[in-house]
Amino acid sequence: MFSHLRTSYATVFKVMSSLLMLFSFIFLIPLPFSLIYRELSAVPAFLIVSGLSLLLSRLFCIKCRFATMEVITSKEGAVIVLFSWLLIIFLSSLPYVFLRVLGFSRAIFESTSGWTTTGLTVISDVEIVPKTILVWRSLTQFLGGAGFAIIVMGAVIGPTGLGLYQAEGRVDNIAPNIRYSARTILIVYVAYALVGAIALRAAGMNLFDAFNHSLTALATGGFSTKNSSIGFYNNFSVELVSIVLMWLGATGFGIHYAFWQRNWQALRKNPEPKQMFLLTAVSVVILSSAGVGKIFPTVHSGMRQALFQVVSALTGTGFSTSDLRKWISFPLGIFILSVLMLMGGCMDSTSGGIKQYRLTVMGKALLFSVRRFLLPRSAVVQVEIWKGNNKRYLDDSLIREAFLVSGLYILSFIVGVVVLLLCGYGLSESIFEFASAVAGVGLSVGVTNYSMPDGALWTLITGMFLGRLEFLVVLYAFAKVFRDFSSAVHR
Fold first, then answer.
1. Which of 31, 346, 390, 402 has the most CB atoms around it within 10 Å of its CB?
2. pLDDT band at residue 256, thresholds of 50, 70 and 90?
3. What's the count of helices (H) and strands (E) in the chain, helices before strands?
4. How far apart are CA 321 and CA 324, in angstroms?
5. Residue 159 three-state SS
6. Whether 238 contacts 161, CB under 8 Å
7. Measured between alpha carbons, how far is 380 from 406 in angstroms, rounded to an integer?
8. pLDDT tens, position by position, 108-164
9. Of the candidates 97, 83, 93, 113, which has an alpha carbon nearest to the alpha carbon of residue 20?
10. Which pairs from 41-44 meet CB under 8 Å and 24+ separation?
């Protein structure tokens, strides 16, 4: 038993060592920008963090000499994912502290918001922050959207890493080989970002803003280089390109793969994009018609603003073209955006929330129950559900996972809202802000700011973290560590 545990945790340390080695180079990426924009004070900050990452990598490597790396189980994957995220979030917060942009707890908030692709920010004025920090914020969202499993497997781990891939919530193996799947996702992701930056530059942004907004739009993150987000530009072309990028980010990688393979049959049968289009159309009509004279001056303005806010909420991005603090007087709008944020985009996308796939599973399960009640007992009925190129049939495991994760989202949402209410915020504010945090969106009605109480700050941090890892990974990881620790103590 002890030998098995030693081998298991040696594998955990080996993967984390590889991850930290990789991140010792990632922490150096902002340095060219500090030289270009003559922000030389940022150089030591990122060099120190890179050195810390390298040092931790070597320390972990000492503990991994018993690792076999034959296979990473889902339980080991859960432990790797949980502690890798915690460690990288901590290291990524240090540049904010070293450059005196934020204090430690606020830096942890900003780092968590970045890596979870949430986009809530406690920086009071992003337009006076060093450009190196703005690039770092955008980079954390871009990499966080891909996820550590994709980054590590695409770079260092071979086909034995299925457990790690699945532990981070990936169920869409777009190719038979896991490593090939990870690399394909990275290639498509980077290609979209490059095209997006070119399109935003052509639409009217300067090159720096286009680069940053392309990364955060595709990651459905929402960090902006402007205090008023996309609304700063008041440019319909910029808004349209941003909508396309947000939609691409919220679409599952398996669907992208099916598109580039020209598998039109699979695309037609995938329910998630169709559900998102339907939800968007209905929500835009309701908001634009109900909001005219309240928050929208004209029907045209209402349609334009409602479309952008709805897509931003549903895809989990968090860009805005409207001051949502004014929406507090429009309860219907707050309610619709909150529901859309909790629903989220597609599975295996950069989007957060419950996800359209789980909503499909739950809907089909309810309809299937009604059909089974009406049909003879001997009748055999199979309900198919498409995801990317793959067809699955409705079964107990799918239904159980969908209802369990959805239930945890709702439960955590209720708890988070109650805590914010206890911190002194109103009901509408609490509902909207925590929905934005737990679903990884980033839209705000003003609750999130530098001077917010620590209780509210850490409540939102917890919501962002649990929502990004979809609860079960955290529960599985802590359960494994506790069980293994108990076994070692009582051995």
1. 346
2. confident
3. 21, 2
4. 9
5. coil
6. no
7. 28
8. 999 999 999 999 999 999 999 999 999 999 999 998 887 765 665 555 555 445 555
9. 83
10. 41/99, 41/130, 42/95, 42/99, 42/130, 42/132, 42/133, 44/98
Tokens of 135: 């690039």
- How far CA 327 is from CA of 228, 229, 443, in Å, comes to 15, 16, 12
| Tokens, residue 350 | 């950069």
Please say whether the dihedral angle defined by the alpha carbons of residues 438, 442, 443 and 445, taken in this order, is positive or negative.
positive
Quote the tokens at residue 396: 């107990």
**Distance of CA 145 to CAs 116, 179, 205, 220, 365, Å?**
7, 18, 23, 7, 30
Q: Which two tokens stand for residue 479?
A: 């359960």
- Give me the amino acid identity at 28: L
* In contact, 465 and 144? CB cutoff 8 Å: no
What region does 481 belong to: left with phi over 0, alpha with psi -120 to 50, or beta?
A: alpha
C-alpha distances out from residue 78 to 167, 185, 191, Å: 5, 21, 29
Residue 424, token pair as written in the block: 């002194």
pTM, 2 dp: 0.92
Contact yes or no for 190/249 (Cβ under 8 A): no
